[in-house]
Amino acid sequence: MGASAAGLSAAETLRREGYEGEITLVGAEPQPPYDRPPLSKQVLAGEWDADRLALRADDHLADLCLDLRLGVTATGLDLATREVALADGSSVGYDALVIATGVRPRRLPGEGAHVLRTLGDALALRERIGPGAHLVVVGAGFLGAEAAAVARGLGAQVTVLEPAPVPLAHAVGAEIGAILAQAHLENGVNLRTGVSVTAVACGGVQLAGGELIGADEVLIAVGSLPNTEWLEDSGLTIDNGVVCDEYCAAAPGVYAAGDVARWHNPLFGTSMRIEHRTNAAEQGMAAARNLLNAGSPKPFAPVPYFWSDQYDMKIQAYGYLRGHEEIAVVEGDLAERRFLAAYRTGDRVAGVLGVGMPPKAIRPWRQAVATQAHWESLGR
Amino acid sequence: MRVELDEPKCVASGQCVMAAPDVFDQREDDGVAFLLTEEPTDEQLDSVRESVAICPAAAIRLIES
């Protein structure tokens, strides 16, 4: 269930591993599987057309011999009879199930604001931002920051409203968050932190204190919610995602992968739900392999990875940065926005974040995270 | 078998280099991937298929002839 990166990866892996039986791939959106990261980058900028987003060429998709059902959402799951109910009134029986229904954007009360998750969302926003337009972005996370950067590039006037004192502080730390925010200020973004938006209002957004911020267009980028409503009566454990063990299993014969899955990552000894593009593909693969080898499953213990493009900055991070206790700049210079920062959690290297750093500089640090290197052993 | 890399799509994640280090490498300046060989050996095919699967930009294609 779910025909985006994780669902496709699971289906493709089943075939690569030699499974020749039926595979049904059900997707809520009408398009064949497509890629999302470019939506807030090249697509929003008008540099790429929609046809560049296909995750697989038509002939490759055909070779997978899938029963591909698009434009249909799931409405229920019956674990006892092994059936998924679909919104068109039909149902699909299964021997094994991979849940990859992803997330959807959080919204705010009020009508008329954009969100940015689907191709349709990106095309709708792209049509409305250009020179002279005033775009208000609610939320200075990675998605909001990328959209703000693209809108500035298109000549729009951009205001970013963020409730936290420092954007992204919870994700990358206050010091690094402030450095990334500085790039927006230097590029002419009106960044207001510590302000809470309560609703989308006529002609703008309403702040908690009552102030109205005027806007031609509003983009809400305040995080996402896992698409698990259809599983509520299924008996699966749902807790901000489909709860899985370290093998991505949610129940016998039932696996979850991608943005919707909360699983125990043994490498970090904690439960996590990762909304990164690379995790979708890797977890789809892992779930499919464990599904086929249920007698000897392998733990899914990846080093999470994400990247973000903003202005001339390429931000890349490996590991699990949340909950870190210390940050050390190990190369480069924060002020020049060309640096490598290592993150400590406990006595381990938990992650690394680089801006504008060559692969040769980052790779050993990824390795340090993967091998759970001791912070002190790095001789700093 | 031939590997194709859609370079403008590459996001410099280096996933392919980790999966198939004898087929892919990354440019030092911007991390964009490049091919060390366009025609992988039979022994390299599994790792190339892995690269195709995990590339976060869907920038790699294996043309099976």
The CATH architecture classification of chain B is 2-Layer Sandwich
CATH class of the largest domain in chain A: Alpha Beta
Indicate the overall shape of chain A: globular
N- and C-termini, Cα separation of chain A: 47 Å
Number of strands of chain A: 25
Please characterize this protein's 3D structure.
- The complex is a heterodimer of chains A (380) and B (65).
- Chain A has 380 residues and is of the alpha/beta class.
- Chain A has three domains: 5-104 and 224-292, 3-Layer(bba) Sandwich (FAD/NAD(P)-binding domain), CATH 3.50.50; 107-220, FAD/NAD(P)-binding domain (3-Layer(bba) Sandwich), CATH 3.50.50; 312-378, Enolase-like, domain 1, CATH 3.30.390.30.
- Chain A contains eight helices and 25 strands.
- In chain A, the strands form eight sheets. In chain A, strands 21-22-25-24-23 form a five-stranded antiparallel beta sheet. Chain A has a four-stranded parallel beta sheet with strand order 10-9-8-14, covered by helices on one side.
- The model of chain A has no long low-confidence stretch (mean pLDDT 96).
- Chain B has a single domain (2-63), classed as 2-Layer Sandwich (Alpha-Beta Plaits).
- Chain B is globular.
- Chain B has helices spanning 15-19, 45-54, and strands at 2-5, 24-26, 33-35, 60-63.
- Chain B contains two helices and four strands.
